[in-house]
Amino acid sequence: MGPPPPSATPAGARRVHHRRVPANLTAQYKDAELRLRQATSHDEKVEALREMLALLPKHKGTEKLHADLKKRLAKLEEEREHAARSGSHHVDLGHVRREGAGQWALVGPPNAGKSSLLAALTHAHPEIAEYPFTTHVPQPGMMPFEDVQVQLVDTPAIAPGHVEPFLPALVRGADGVVIVLDVAADDLEASLVGTLDVLLHGHVWPEGRPVPDGASPLVVPRPVLVAANKHDLDDAEGTFSQLAREAVGPGLPFFPVSATRGDGLDGLRPWLFRALRKIRVHTKEPGKKADLGKPFVLPEGAAVEALAALVHQDLAARLKFARVWGHARFDGQQVDRHHVLADGDVVELHA
């Protein structure tokens, strides 16, 4: 059969090439793809793209799709950074700029005392009232601990049928989560379950608990603790605290505290820093005393070259050796760039 007559193909018409989509995409992937098409906020799009990347089968037939998804995700993240640098009036409530040694999100039900705890631990002055839902937007504050500061972020309350849409993304962006509960509340256990559901929606789960069956492959373990607030209302035997600890169950560190009276806060501060798994390192110049002011903060297991990169971008490439005081075999020990540092070390870098 010969070619169709010229009239069958209108002038200027183009052939339509349909993109071939891999046939073995899972139902979970298709659900994430549907959420991406329906997403209206920046954070919803980023979350859906990340899940699609995690769920996409890895083989020859998905290489182009994988590259396309990564490109789209990179563009969204670049737009966020550009907006932050340019001081755009658009406010992304799901993202609070990290400061200090690390960031903790304070989450929980109405009137549990999250804002009071923030005020007690930091120099922030959030609005505090007896009525629920006083906090409408994230409120950061800096908690001093020895020679560093740790960022705490107060968040809007979590209640049945009332969760701010940006909250799961904010929780995912934090280094850890403090669940603030009212130690004397009748619905403490239900409040805990509702809060953990929000964490799971943000793909975050407590390190000490097994991840539920059917959870997203994007779920990551993070340090999560329970601050059982209003301990000052407890009786002499600590009955409320005992019942609250039983309701919380195993796998979650439990701190009875009082934001108003200060109970338990001295033990909470060091835990919040140590759970970040960070080390503090000071530097010194040859022949001079160590600079014991603000330390450099690095993740546990960081080596000398990571410190050099923090001091100056080019120093890591030019680094020859270093001398270490503190946890070395002897003071001033000469080490190479791969030497692992410890909390409290003093380091002299030689390039």
Automatic annotation (TrEMBL):
For whether the record's keyword set contains Coiled coil, the answer is yes
Q: Which residues form a coiled coil?
A: 59-86
Per its UniProt entry, which superkingdom is the organism in? Answer: Bacteria
Q: Entry's PROSITE patterns?
A: TGS
Q: Where is the TGS domain?
A: 277-351
Cite the residue spans of the region called Disordered.
Answer: 1-20
| UniProtKB keywords | Coiled coil
- Protein name as it appears in the record: GTP-binding protein
Q: What is the lineage of its organism?
A: Bacteria, Pseudomonadati, Myxococcota, Myxococcia, Myxococcales
